[in-house]
Amino acid sequence: MENPQDELKAHLMATSEEFRELATQHAQYHKSLEELEAKHHLTEEEQVEEVRLKKQKLRLKDQMNAILGRYKAQHVA
To answer: pTM of the full predicted structure?
Structure first.
């Protein structure tokens, strides 16, 4: 059985276009970061890109968590 947080994410993926777009972009940033991290040595440009991607990914996660929080607040009250 999934935990309630996973169930809520799955529900929002199915019902919220905004959440789905954020999650898709987050996954793309994650994939790009994995590709960079697989390299043994990063150029200066790649290092800058890695930092940028990490910040963007964190910003998206914060936005997704805000949506989760709003949804919980609306449906618990």
So the answer is: 0.86
Which H, E and C letters describe the chain, residue by residue?
CCCHHHHHHHHHHHHCHHHHHHHHHHHHHHHHHHHHHCCCCCCHHHHHHHHHHHHHHHHHHHHHHHHHHHHHHHHHC
Query: Angle at the Cα of 54 (from 66 to 73), degrees rounded to 5?
Result: 5
- Distance of alpha carbon 50 from the chain centroid: 15
Question: Which residue, 75, 52, 67, is CA-closest to 16?
Answer: 67
List, for residues 46-71, the tens digit of each pLDDT value: 999 999 999 999 999 999 999 999 99
